[in-house]
Amino acid sequence: MGDAELAALQAEVEALRVELAAQQRTVPALPSEHDGTPITWRPWTSAPLLSHVDAACPQCAHPGPSLLTFGLAGEKQKIRFQANRCPACQETRVYRREPAAYGLPRVILHEIAYHPPRSEVPGGR
Ligand SMILES: [Zn+2]
Predict the structure, then answer these.
(1) N or C end: fewer C-beta atoms under 10 angstroms in the chain?
(2) What's the 93 CA to ligand 1 centre distance in angstroms?
(3) With a threshold of 0.90, does the pTM exceed it?
């Protein structure tokens, strides 16, 4: 590998490092616990697109899909929490998931944390 090639690679690595640092600054931190219960968060993934739900972000009109992660808690590490985040403006909502006590099996979401959209992000408000 020549010197020029090496220098180009090093410059690329440096650029990626800067980009990563910027990303880490802008992604809101998820709560590490709720009411004393530690939460283990899975990595962020793209939320499934549902034909009957508009995937666009209501804040910045990013077409989606939004990002989704689940938080595990309790002795059996079950999914007890979830968070949704817009990849553009970083608006984030964190929910506690509660199975409905009556009726059809479903999960009721209780919002426990909210990070407003970042206005400095292009396309954000
Ligand atoms: Zn957004």
Answers:
(1) N
(2) 12
(3) no
